[in-house]
Design brief:
This protein is mostly helical. It has a domain of 41 residues. 60% of the residues lie in helices and 0% in strands.
Length: 68
């Protein structure tokens, strides 16, 4: 599924687990789930870095405008 902004949406890890687990049983996500989570983490890190760069540019622009 793709969002309005063009981002690929994926199911969360929470929704991919079975709702009932027998007591004492350890449920581990499969490799596909882990790859998905790692990709999402990388995307969020990149998004954070881009936001930080934009913030710096905006602060610089505001400083220039305040000097005028």
């Amino acid at each position: 599924m793709v969002s309005k902004m063009g981002h690929t949406l994926v199911d969360s890890v929470a929704t991919s687990f079975p709702t009932t687990v027998s007591p004492g049983r350890i449920v581990e996500p499969d490799n596909l789930d882990m790859k998905t989570v790692k990709i999402q983490i990388a995307e969020y890190k990149a998004l954070g870095q881009a936001a930080e760069a934009e913030r710096g540019k905006l602060i610089e622009m505001v400083n220039i405008l305040q000097k005028r």
